[in-house]
Design goal:
By secondary structure, the protein is mainly beta. About 10% of the residues lie in helices and about 30% in strands. The protein starts with a helix and ends with a strand. The structure holds ligand MTE and molybdenum atom. Its cofactor is Mo-molybdopterin.
């Protein structure tokens, strides 16, 4: 267990004990009501105010909770109640979906630009605002499928959601301030606030991969001020990238010539690759260790192509004969998702699903595949492909990597037709 994990494990344990003590006291006060409350883990709404109690808490300190395929299937845009949370470092007092009202909050913008400056949230809110709908996904989502199971939070499929961000494009901000990029600027290096004594969180993303043109300082989500737990009052959103670059509680943003060498950049959040950017994962022996360094691996940059089956749900029974298999597909937004193929016979034959629509290039493509199915047991699979020919492996374990990132294996769902 590395040092950071050990610390957070101890914190989680302390938190659990404090919680048990509290619930035991509360339980005693109401005569326990026969609920055996002292055995229960805190629910998502107890960990973060405003969250749906159906979210699954993976850690209460730092806060890590995942949504479910069932909940994701009920909404076109994931509500703040149903959106997963991934904190590496909690900021005290922000475990709520309410806005984080902090007048005068400052973001420092600097590094390789013609003139560094500071900007307040009030000033940001007076600049032209842009909306973008994008898929937010933890790069560890799907980790529980890897065999052997890598260390880290055992995300199943719920570390993902689709939300609409509103804020000021970085490009718009620099133009408004009449600030020019230095030609040596290659990366954006960001720091989260350390208010309340929080540990630093520093991440870098290459300007080229990040689709600099759509990177924004987000102040809002789904038509409301950005919820505190999701990074309010201001968060960097790089549509098309995995969650890790989307720094919450943004305090500083610098244009730099190279990547941060901090712990969150290396060895964390990386996959083995041959040198190069946005390259495929280098296959490694499942179960083996990898000596992560900046030059033999890459950070979790652009989201790789993926698709999830949202209906029917695993283990469910549906009425035949016409069964609508439904789901979503997405990628990094660099090319459109071209097709989703569905198989109901273990991959022997595939049929193209109907793509019903998508929420812009960074959002989910909703697809449906009507199937005529006689009563019986089925296993349905779905595989997305984009116009660059990028597709999902039938066996996601081919990309097994020590830390279990970027799972995009074809999903298999067993259900019954009655
Ligand atoms: N300041 C800060 N920003 C952060 C993190 C964090 O721990 N601290 N976690 C990152 C990771 S790993 C993910 S997956 C996303 C999760 O975003 P959410 O909690 O809003 O769902 O936030 C990213 N931004
Ligand atoms: Mo993440």
């Amino acid at each position: 267990m590395d040092e950071q994990k050990k610390v957070s494990f101890e914190q989680a344990e302390m938190n659990r004990r404090a919680f048990l003590k509290k619930t035991a006291a509360a339980g005693a006060a109401v005569g326990m009501m026969g609920l055996g409350m002292a055995q229960q883990q805190p629910t998502a709404d107890q960990v973060v105010r405003g969250k749906n109690p159906k979210l699954v808490v993976l850690s209460s300190r730092p806060v890590v909770m995942e949504s479910t395929l069932e909940l994701l299937g009920t909404e076109r845009i994931t509500s703040k109640a149903n959106l997963f949370v991934r904190n590496n470092i909690d900021l005290p007092g922000l475990n709520t979906t309410e806005p984080n009202v902090q007048p005068g909050w400052v973001v420092e913008i600097g590094g390789l630009i013609s003139a560094p400056f500071r900007i307040t949230v009030e000033e940001l809110s007076r600049l032209p605002q842009t909306e973008v709908t994008s898929v937010l996904q933890c790069s560890g989502n799907g980790r529980a499928n890897f065999n052997p199971r890598p260390s880290g939070n055992p995300w199943t499929y719920g570390g993902v959601g689709q939300v609409t961000w509103r804020g000021v494009l970085l490009k718009t901000l620099l133009e408004a301030k009449e600030v020019k990029l230095n030609e040596n600027a290659r990366f954006i290096t960001m720091n989260a606030s350390t208010q309340g004594g929080a540990q630093p969180y520093e991440k870098s993303f290459p300007i080229s991969v990040l689709d600099y043109n759509s990177a924004m300082l987000a102040l809002g989500m789904n038509g409301e001020p950005l919820p505190a737990v999701h990074g309010g009052p201001v968060r960097l959103v790089a549509a098309g990238t995995f969650g890790t670059a989307n720094v919450k509680w943004l305090a500083k943003l610098e244009f730099t010539a190279s990547e941060s060498s901090g712990n969150e950049q290396v060895p964390r959040y990386r996959v083995p690759v041959l040198p190069g950017w946005n390259t495929p994962i280098l296959p490694t022996q499942p179960g083996s260790r990898y000596p992560y360094a900046l030059n033999n691996s890459r950070s979790n940059w652009g989201a790789n192509i993926n698709s999830f089956i949202l209906s029917p749900l695993a283990g469910s029974s549906v009425k035949g004969r016409l069964v609508e298999v439904r789901g979503v597909a997405w990628n990094d937004g660099l090319a459109p998702v071209e097709s989703v193929e569905v198989s109901v016979n273990g991959g022997t034959s595939w049929r193209k699903a109907i793509i019903e629509g998508n929420e812009g290039k960074f959002g989910w493509y909703r697809w449906v595949s009507p199937q005529l199915l006689a009563p019986g047991e089925y296993e349905v699979m779905a595989r997305a492909t984009d116009t660059l020919g990028r597709t999902q492996p039938l066996n996601g374990n081919v990309w097994w990597n020590e830390r279990g990132y970027e799972w995009n294996g074809v999903m298999r769902v067993k259900f019954k037709v009655t």
